[in-house]
Design a protein that fits this description.
By secondary structure, this protein is α/β, with parallel strands linked by helices. It is built from ten helices and eight strands. The structure holds 2-phosphoglycolic acid (PGA). 2-phosphoglycolic acid binds next to strand 8.
């Protein structure tokens, strides 16, 4: 299975900074052929990024969308607008959306359906908080998020990202064993939903991935890529992550 590694820039980078990043990043990864390389800039930088990545091995993702195609929804961005701006993928259900913007499972599900209907690839995020992990609820939370988010959704063009909230932006990575354990569990739930097709769904790990820990994480059986925040903001650091060592 081809690895899938995406940069989630969150609320970072102007148009100029986006162009500057890509002009240094693209040459550094041009020989990487065995990884789907994806960058997710903020909405305002998408068109500029689309120009920069044209005819390269880098793909474009948005960080969110709204489920309606058009209409009176001040401030929102539709799936068709993302396609128009050059996006191939969209991140949906990131824990920061769930936490700060009250995105519940039903909203996440609606967004996934809208994205897929428009032909966008979906990077669907799930993950437990520290309190949930400590209370022994990790698997319950993951099961609920995966099943609700994917209700009436097929498995085409779907990537799932496991991002333990306690590992995001904290420098506290899940151990390889912790990641593998939850990834295998997600694979099992996907198997219940999609049968054999679950084997072909890429499950990314996210949460303080760096050039130093990427090799071990990617060597885990059910880890098929990464969603990278902080360490994706510098071209050299993200290029190192994308060029991780596959010999492990
Ligand atoms: P981080 O963020 O790599 O900065 O922990 C990951 C994410 O939230 O996608």
């Amino acid at each position: 299975m081809k690895y899938f590694i995406a940069a989630n820039w969150k609320l970072n980078k102007t148009i100029g900074e986006t162009r500057e990043f890509l002009r240094s990043f693209i040459p550094a990864v041009q020989n990487v052929t065995d990884v789907d390389i994806v960058v997710a800039p903020p909405f305002t930088s998408l068109s500029a990024a689309a120009e920069e990545i044209k005819d390269t091995n880098v793909q474009l993702s948005a960080q969110d969308l709204f489920w309606e195609e058009k209409g009176a929804y001040t401030g929102e961005i539709s799936p068709l607008m993302l396609l128009d701006a050059g996006c191939k993928h969209v991140i949906i259900g990131h824990s920061e959306r769930r936490q700060y913007f009250s995105e519940e499972d039903v909203i996440v599900n609606r967004k996934i359906k809208a994205a897929k209907k428009a032909g966008l690839g979906v990077i669907f995020c799930v993950g437990e908080s520290l309190a949930e992990r400590e209370a022994g609820k990790t698997f319950d939370v993951i099961k609920r998020e995966v099943e609700s988010g994917l209700a009436e959704v097929d498995s085409d063009n779907l990537v799932v990202a496991y991002e333990p909230i306690w590992a995001i932006g904290t420098g506290k990575t899940a151990s390889n064993e912790q990641a593998q354990e939850v990834h295998a569990f997600i694979r099992k739930i996907l198997g219940n939903l999609y049968g054999d097709k679950a084997q072909g769904i890429r499950i990314l790990y996210g949460g303080s991935v760096t050039p130093d820990n990427v090799d071990g994480l990617m060597a885990c059986k059910d880890v098929n890529g990464a969603l990278v925040g902080g360490a994706s903001l510098k071209p050299d650091s993200f290029a190192k992550i994308v060029s991780f060592n596959k010999e492990n």
